[in-house]
Amino acid sequence: MSPQGTPARLASAGPDARRADLRRRSRRRQRIYALCLLLCLLAAAAIYLLPGDLSEHDRNRLTPLWVFPLVFGAYGLVGEELLRLVQAGRAANLAEAARHWNHRGGLVGQVGRVLLLPFTVFRYTRWQSPWLATLLAAVFWSLLLVFLLDWLFPGP
pTM of the prediction? Predict the structure, then answer.
């Protein structure tokens, strides 16, 4: 006999039980994404608003401390919406859901394609993990920003 809420139990349960479990997991993930956005604001305030002996170069080096949680939280919330499209059967995978969401009124045109670029990786895989998609997007944009800042503001 499997414990309540395990995949074996949910597989034998009806669609209503599966949907309720997915909603519960989605709400839990949304809380984590909101917490990341709050951490982002606190880290940015600490780096840029509190007085200290940080040089501009040091502040640029600390940018990932607030950019990563910002991107992780924002992409997580977008990823939850994309997962709803996949679960509703309106898209086969996260990449198709990103294209659908972009055309439906999310982000417009080329800007949306660029911002949702990390989700295209999931066109080629059957594994549609919201955590992995969000993590890859956050790493992608954070590294891109670090390289851009290093190029624009070289250190001493």
Answer: 0.70
